[in-house]
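Need a sequence for this fold. Nothing fancy.
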């Protein structure tokens, strides 16, 4: 009888070891799924958190232009005193004035709503033109230019109404934006 209880004890330990092994195996197989669900619910985690620029300066001008998400390529940016000058290339967009106006609106909102030290925004729309001759050099030709000042009264009431191609051709908007257009 003592032998039977010893053998029974042996089977109990073996059964306990098997159940622990099975439990750990199940737990380890479920654990990656739990981690994946947890990661999916959190979404992407930014390492750097963008801070809205309140005061534009030469140290943050490049990062600021990149953060605006402009459709047109920025060819040059100037910052002198409180005047922001931006040249936007229309290459690839042709006469898509709605794209031009959308980028102009983003620049206006940044300059006069978000930043507090821009007093004037000069935007030039340029297109590359290949020069005839030996050099095959490309120069930028001015298509349109805009000159908007922080003191313009319409900025506080009508900036959100600046929409699409119709704003580009509307005489009131041309006056407000001090928009001049050249012919190619």
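Here you go.
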């Amino acid at each position: 009888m003592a032998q039977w209880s010893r053998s029974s004890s042996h089977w109990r330990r073996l059964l306990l070891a098997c159940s622990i092994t099975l439990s750990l195996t199940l737990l380890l197989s479920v654990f990656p799924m739990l981690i994946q669900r947890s990661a999916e619910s959190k979404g992407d985690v930014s390492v750097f958190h963008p801070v809205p620029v309140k005061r534009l300066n030469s140290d943050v001008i490049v990062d600021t232009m990149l953060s605006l998400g402009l459709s047109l390529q920025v060819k040059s940016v100037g910052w002198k005193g409180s005047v922001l000058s931006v040249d936007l290339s229309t290459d690839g967009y042709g006469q898509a004035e709605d794209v031009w106006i959308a980028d102009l609106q983003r620049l206006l909102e940044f300059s006069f709503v978000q930043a507090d030290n821009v007093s004037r925004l000069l935007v030039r729309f340029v297109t590359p033109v290949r020069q005839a001759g030996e050099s095959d050099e490309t120069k930028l030709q001015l298509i349109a230019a805009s000159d908007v000042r922080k003191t313009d009264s319409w900025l506080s009431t009508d900036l959100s109404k600046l929409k699409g191609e119709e704003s580009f051709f509307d005489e009131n908007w041309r006056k407000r934006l001090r928009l001049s257009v050249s012919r190619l």
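For context: DSSP finds six helices and five strands in the chain.
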